[in-house]
Specification:
The protein is an alpha/beta fold and 275 residues long. The chain contains 12 helices and 6 strands. It starts with 11 loop residues before the first helix and ends with a helix.
Amino acid sequence: MNIKELDPESSPQAAFGALLRTSRLERSWTQDELGDRMGYSSTHLSSVETGRKMPTLRLARRADAALEAGGAFEREWREIRHGTLLEGFPEFLDVESKAVEIRLYEVGVVPGLLQTSEYAAALAESAVKRGAITPEQAGERVALVAERQAALLRTPPPMVFATLDEGCIRRPVGGPGVMEGQLAHLAAFAELPNTVLQIATFDMGVRRPFDLPLYVLTMPDRTVLSYAESAHQGHLERESTFVLPMLTAYHQLQAEAPSQAASVAMINQLRKGTP
């Protein structure tokens, strides 16, 4: 039988296929036998093993169960999923999903935690048109937004403090219908018992301590981390000497920005077409 050789180092997808084939052969199982245990056809598994078909999270978890892999396949799947993300961002996603308090400042676009699916899709489609990502990667970006937001529904939920530069609500994305839905979502977000939403207005000028997006995360053990991005990579900072000044500056930002009530009133004025 002509078996296609895979180089596990060539891509995360090839590494997943190679791991699936190796684990199956270690048990002397055919693709039919593994397929029966996982609930997939041998043809489908063959396509995954040879890298022709992208594995799903569902398939990865079933492979972990059938092959008693201890989560190895899910970890490989996440490598595939995060392979197109900015360096440092996957590590941030992991700590974000566990944080008990999330403080964020965003410039230019509504942050992922607060985006509607339509708004996220409009941003992703724009990136496809620019040739920055593929349509498949665009779908992964939209799915990742939903995945991040779902993690916030855990019990108890984290406290989320969101301060958005005014440009986030004034920059049109995806047309009037998409923007109306997004602004309505922000107003509803502000009504939640575990959220605070403020708009850092343009007239704050130099009283804004940040010029770039920033996240400050408080973990269950009360340690505080910060995350910021450049054009090429993200950086998760754990050293308190650098993080605590960021937390202080964030408190100063909140003190200078309009209140949540005033911020929501601004959002609702925009929804009515009032400057």
